[in-house]
Every structure is written in structure tokens, then in C-alpha cells.
Specification:
Elements: E1 14-19, E2 24-27, E3 30-32, H1 39-50, E4 54-59, E5 71-74, H2 78-88, E6 93-96, E7 103-105, E8 126-128, H3 132-137, E9 145-152, H4 156-167, E10 171-176, E11 188-189, E12 191-194, E13 199-201, E14 205-206, H5 207-225
Parallel strand pairs: 1-4, 1-6, 4-5, 6-9, 9-10
Antiparallel strand pairs: 2-3, 7-8, 10-12, 11-14, 12-13
Helix pairs in contact: 1-5
The structure holds cytidine-5'-triphosphate (CTP) and calcium ion (CA).
Protein name: Coenzyme A biosynthesis bifunctional protein CoaBC
GO molecular function, one term: FMN binding
Catalytic activity: (R)-4'-phosphopantothenate + L-cysteine + CTP = N-[(R)-4-phosphopantothenoyl]-L-cysteine + CMP + diphosphate + H(+); N-[(R)-4-phosphopantothenoyl]-L-cysteine + H(+) = (R)-4'-phosphopantetheine + CO2
Length: 227
């Protein structure tokens, strides 16, 4: 008999998590990317699985391993991430941690772009990527609980509150990603949890500790919703 078995408050709950950066192709050998390591998103997926959730992680290209006990789908671009997330609906909750590229090139070249004498560098025409969180936050199959992140370098709270409303999220995890903080790629995170009625300031924690606290918060809220 397991006397000290871990409580599994999220058992039977399907939760989608996005993590990592996205890569937006320029041509077959080049892409636009960002500094996201996937550490925070993967830690959240692992923490939710530890509480018993059926976690579906949609991960952009990262150098870290798939978390154990989590079904992981690998994607490259924002459009692929959006399609993978939509295919996983319906779900009880969704947590959007990925640093999705805001723009992609309008037409990725089919062949490697060559330098041409006297022509100069290519002008990349950019278009906006779909907002995956906003799409799910306003979806007809919206999960009971929708959590987003807000990566900011200034006016953190104001911007987080605006994102909460615009994207139809229940919580925004606001973090300051200014270079000094070293959040992107680093092992620690200092966040504020913004909801419609509240701002909860968490101390400076490891990304694993942030993940555990967030998983507990999600479990508590799914319980109050009593699905
Ligand atoms: N997000 C998303 N799809 C996008 C852009 C962002 O799902 N195309 C999600 C992120 O995963 C995060 C939240 O939206 O949970 C906020 O991302 P962020 O980059 O902070 O905000 P943006 O809306 O992209 O605005 P900006 O970058 O201009 O601040
Ligand atoms: Ca963005």
C-alpha cells in the first residue's frame, strides 16, 4: 500500500500547455526565432502531470527533453502550433507559455536565397501570426480555465491587464523579461498573477517552483468550477 502517495487533484483533467519559441522560416536553411528555452513551459507541464493531469504539451523547437508523463507534440512555426492546439480541444484548461513569434515572413522562399551582386540584402515582407491564446480564449470550445503569460520589459502590470481582457484569459502570469532579469534562458522567474479582480505578487523563485505553485492554483480553480 502507498501510504504517502502524492495527492492527484488534477486526475481526469485534460490540460494543454504550449512551450518554447517558434521558428518562422525565411528559406529552407534560415528562420526567425527568439530566446525562449522552454524551461518554464516544460516545468509547468511536468508539475501539472505530477498532480495527475492528462497533459498535452505543444512544444516549439527546444534543446531540453520532453517532460516525463506528458504527451508532447513537436511543432516549428506559430501556424503549426495553432493547428496542434486546436486539434487538442476540447480540454479542461490551457496554459500558454510559448514565446510565439509575433510575425512570420509572408512567403518563405522555396530555395535558399542567394547573394546576388549589386542587388543588396533581401527585403523580408512580414505578416502577423495568429494569436493562439486569444483564439482559444474566445473559442466556442473554450476550456474552463485559460492561462496566459505576458512577457514585458516595461509597464508590466498595465500590459498584463490589457492582455487578460483582450485575449479572454482567466489569469495572466506577468513577467519582466528585460535583459537584466535574465528570465529568457535562465532558471529563475519572478512573476505576478493577474486576474480580473486581483494581483498576486510571487517572490523570486526557480522556474520549477513557479510551475508547482501555478499547478496548485490551476487545481484549486478547476475544483471551484466543479466540472
Ligand atoms: N501568444 C500566443 N500567440 C501569439 C502571441 C502570443 O498564444 N501569436 C500568447 C503567449 O503564449 C502568451 C501571451 O499570448 O501566453 C502573451 O504573449 P506576449 O508575447 O507577451 O504578448 P503579445 O500579445 O504577443 O503582445 P506583445 O508581444 O506585443 O507584447
Ligand atoms: Ca509577442
Amino acid at each position: 500500500m502507498l501510504l504517502d502517495a502524492q495527492p492527484r487533484p488534477l486526475s481526469g483533467k485534460k490540460i494543454i500547455v504550449t512551450s518554447g519559441p517558434t521558428h518562422e522560416p525565411i528559406d529552407p536553411v534560415r528562420y526567425i526565432a527568439n530566446r525562449s528555452s522552454g524551461k518554464q513551459g516544460h516545468a509547468i507541464a511536468a508539475a501539472l502531470a505530477k498532480l495527475g493531469a492528462d497533459v498535452r504539451l505543444v512544444s516549439g523547437p527546444v534543446a531540453i527533453a520532453d517532460p516525463s508523463g506528458v504527451k508532447t507534440v513537436h511543432v516549428e512555426s506559430a501556424q503549426e502550433m495553432r493547428d496542434a492546439v486546436e486539434q487538442l480541444l476540447p480540454a479542461d484548461a490551457a496554459v500558454f507559455v510559448a514565446a510565439v513569434a509575433d510575425w512570420r515572413t509572408e512567403n518563405a522562399a522555396g530555395e535558399k536565397i542567394k547573394k546576388v551582386a549589386d542587388k543588396g540584402p533581401p527585403a523580408l515582407q512580414m505578416v502577423e501570426n495568429p494569436d493562439i491564446l486569444a483564439g482559444v480564449g474566445h473559442h466556442k470550445q473554450r476550456p474552463y480555465l485559460v492561462v496566459g503569460f505576458a512577457a514585458e520589459t516595461q509597464d508590466v502590470l498595465k500590459n498584463a491587464q490589457a492582455k487578460l481582457k483582450k485575449k479572454g484569459a482567466d489569469f495572466i502570469v506577468a513577467n519582466d523579461v528585460s535583459h537584466e532579469g535574465g528570465v529568457m534562458g535562465g532558471d529563475r522567474n519572478r512573476v505576478r498573477i493577474v486576474s480580473k479582480s486581483d494581483i498576486d505578487e510571487w517572490p523570486d523563485l526557480t522556474k520549477e517552483a513557479v510551475a508547482e505553485r501555478l499547478a496548485d492554483l490551476i487545481a484549486k480553480h478547476l475544483k471551484t468550477i466543479e466540472i
